[in-house]
Amino acid sequence: MTRTVKQLRLLPCAALCALACAGNQAPAPATAASASPPATQTADSAPDSAPGAEAAAQANLPAPEWLPLEAREMLSAGMQRHGEEMMLLLVSVMMLQHEDTELLAQQVASTPRLGRPAPGESGTLGSLLPARFFELQDELQARARAMADAARTKDDSRIVRAYGQLAETCVSCHSVYLNPDEHADLPGD
After folding, report:
1. Parts of the chain with a pLDDT under 50
2. Neighbours of 148 (CB within 10 A)
3. Which residues, in sequence order, are CB contacts of 105 under 8 Å at separation 6+?
4. Which pLDDT score is estimated for 76?
5. How far apart are CA 138 and CA 109, in angstroms?
6. Residue 72 CA: distances (Å) to CA of 1, 10, 78, 84, 182
7. Model-level pTM?
């Protein structure tokens, strides 16, 4: 089995682990009354994946009403690719695979970007998107490069901070995609 296939099998588990870790809450201590011995599982009875793993793997953003269908479809492929890259990055960061992290971050940084619209341009994908989208596109590239640099140093603390900053950019872009009115710079406003 190839290394990439092994990584892909870890994605749902890693995503759930990251979500659990993001809460930053310690589990409640067990009391004598509630403590019970752990259930034993055999290989035959073990679940194929963690609860909710399938839902995490199938997660999609809702379709924004403000953006025409054709524009959503054009953005969809890039968003799908970024989602896959972020999941692979998560696995490589969690498994301390510095070389893979560097390569994946470089891949994100080298992703072709949408061009900013020219003044007065209309009818193109770029002209439909808020200016904040293009700022975040530049930020994504810069943060992905910073993550590749961190991975090259093999400084795990720096790598995880860089991943968090990269993910923060993704979330900000999703917010612009879903709630452009909150960013007040849509064409025609």
Report:
1. 1-2, 4-47, 53, 185-189
2. 21
3. 89, 144, 145, 147, 148, 151, 162, 166
4. 87
5. 9
6. 36, 29, 10, 18, 19
7. 0.68
Q: What token pair was written down for 169?
A: 């950019």
Residue tagged 């009403």 (tokens): 65
Domains of the chain: 77-111+127-189 (1.20.120)
pLDDT digits (tens, 9 = 90+) for 63-107: 888 888 988 988 888 889 999 999 999 999 999 999 999 999 999
Query: Which residue type occupies 118?
Result: A
- Tokens 């409640």 — which residue? 28
Determine the Cα–Cα distance for residues 4 and 7; give it in Å rounded to an integer: 5
- Helix (H), strand (E) at residue 71: helix 69-94
